[in-house]
Amino acid sequence: MMENSVLLNSIFQLLVAAVIFVLLVYIVKFTLDKIKSSSFIKNSRFSNPLEYFPSEALFYLEQIFYVAMILIVVLIILYQIFNWTEGLGFIIALDIIVSIYICIIRSWDSLSDKVLLFLLIPFSSITEIVFGNAYSLFNLFHILGYLYFIQFYYREFLKHTQSKGLGLSLIVTFSILLISFLFTILAEGVSPMDSMTMVTNAFTSNSFDASGKIMAGKINSLVLAWGGFILSIIGTATLSVSIIMKYVSSEFEDIKDTVKKNKGKK
Questions:
Q1: Cβ(71)–Cβ(230) under 8 Å?
Q2: In contact, 194 and 97? CB cutoff 8 Å
Q3: CB–CB of 174/180 below 8 Å?
Q4: How far apart are the C-alpha atoms of 97 and 90, rounded to whole Å?
Q5: How confident is the model at residue 206 (pLDDT cuts 50, 70, 90)?
Q6: Distance between CA 256 and CA 252 in Å, rounded?
Q7: Measuring CA to CA, how many Å separate 19 from each of 16, 39, 81, 122?
Q8: What are the two backbone dihedrals, phi and then psi, of residue 53, each rounded to the nearest 5 degrees?
Q9: Angle between helices 2-37 and 123-130 in degrees, nearest 10
Q10: Number of alpha carbons in the 13 Å side-chain half-sphere of residue 241
């Protein structure tokens, strides 16, 4: 009788988690559709990315997005495999947000897509928040779904890189950072969140200390550091493109002048 009661309770919690996730996806999708269809958003300069960056810089931002999604998913998987506790609340929220985002942007028509959608539901994260009970078995299924999206975003990264004529150095850079993150946990004996801030500080400045005393401070430090790093990459890329375009335009004008002179002599 006790075993049946535990089983029924587990099924009930998983069903509640599934319903909550479906509702969250619907609410977020409905809200985003309303925002996108708003005339204010459509006509506002603030919602136009070209007001902030030239088109060339947007190519780099999209490239960074694909790599960032891979790193975020890998981080969530590592937390679920090793059961790290510090920063777990942040990772749980991140897990739910990423799962909702992927559900919204994809179509789920085929049977394989529906199986993938089931694997994407963050049962463990939702039950942890609502009932204080995480189901490690469903973490395994969730990880399988995430592994698919790691290779999906990697393929998108390669496709975008090739079509826009960009380099592969970004994926190498972030691979080094991921290895450094894991190595710092083992070598320094620090928590995953402290390792993230230490590696970030070492990569973006001359410090190798963990930033922030509380979780909110550490997350704020990570956002500021990586936000500045990404903006610097975009600024450098934009400047390089601008210089090249200016040089090419100047050379083109010189060629035009030369052609005109030669025509005049004839």
A1: no
A2: no
A3: no
A4: 11
A5: low
A6: 6
A7: 5, 32, 25, 11
A8: -135, 150
A9: 100
A10: 16
Give residue-wise pLDDT tens across range 6-38: 778 888 888 999 999 999 999 999 999 888 888
CA distance 238 to 236: 5
Contact status, residue 107 vs residue 113, Cβ threshold 8 Å: yes
**What angle do helix axes 88-105 and 55-82 make, rounded to 10 degrees?**
130
Token duo for residue 57? 């810089």
d(CA 262, CA 89): 72
**pTM, entire model:** 0.82
Per the listing, tokens 């990569």 go with: 203
Residue labelled with tokens 């990459």 = 233
Question: Residues with Cβ < 8 Å from 166, sequence gap 6 or more?
Answer: 59, 60, 63, 160
143-to-135, 158, 170 alpha-carbon distances in Å: 13, 23, 25
Amino acid at 23: L
H or E element at residue 119: helix 111-120
CA distance 45 to 191: 42
- End-to-end, the C-alpha distance of the chain in Å comes to 104
- Look up residue 75 and give its two tokens: 């981080």
Residue type, 10: S
Q: Which residue is associated with the tokens 């592994």?
A: 147
Judge contact between 198 and 209, C-beta under 8 A. Answer: yes
